[in-house]
Amino acid sequence: LAASVAMTALGKQGVREMAKQNIVKTRYAKNAFEAAGFTVTYQGAHFNEIVVKTNKSVTEINKGLIEIGIIGGFDLGRVYPELENHALIAVTELRTKEEIDTLVAEMGALQ
Fold first, then answer.
1. How many whole angstroms separate alpha carbon 7 and alpha carbon 2?
2. Can you spell out the DSSP letters for 65-76?
3. How confident is the model at residue 64 (pLDDT cuts 50, 70, 90)?
């Protein structure tokens, strides 16, 4: 019900703009992680999420991030052992490029 109300409030153009922002910001995050030396595991089209390989335990990285007020990615190794040291990073229309840049820089510093 809440999703229906939200979509109705946004309207057709609002939903389209939100989806466009999600695609653009996810692509921005993908490029930023790659430029910082991370491997983005899956290539192709992305919407809201990317998988980033880390050199260190995602749990350790997330502990460091939370200490500075950043919620890190989901540790995929907890569910899929073959994806140990892989973080699922979610990007939505609410995230700014500055926030994405900060996440990339802080994750890089914690590796």
1. 9
2. HHHTT----EEG
3. very high
Q: What is the mean pLDDT of the chain?
A: 94
What's the pLDDT at 10? 80
Report the residue count for the chain: 111
**Which H or E run includes 89?**
strand 86-90
Please give the Cα distance from 30 to 33 (Å, whole number).
5
Question: Which distant-in-sequence residues (6+ apart) come within 8 Å of 88 by Cβ?
Answer: 49, 50, 51, 73, 74, 76
H or E element: which one contains 30?
helix 2-35
- Whole-model pTM: value is 0.90
Residue 14, token pair as written in the block:
């609002």
**Half-sphere exposure of residue 74: CA atoms within 13 angstroms, side-chain side:** 10
| Listed range (1-5, 41-45, 71-75, 80-84) with the worst mean pLDDT | 1-5
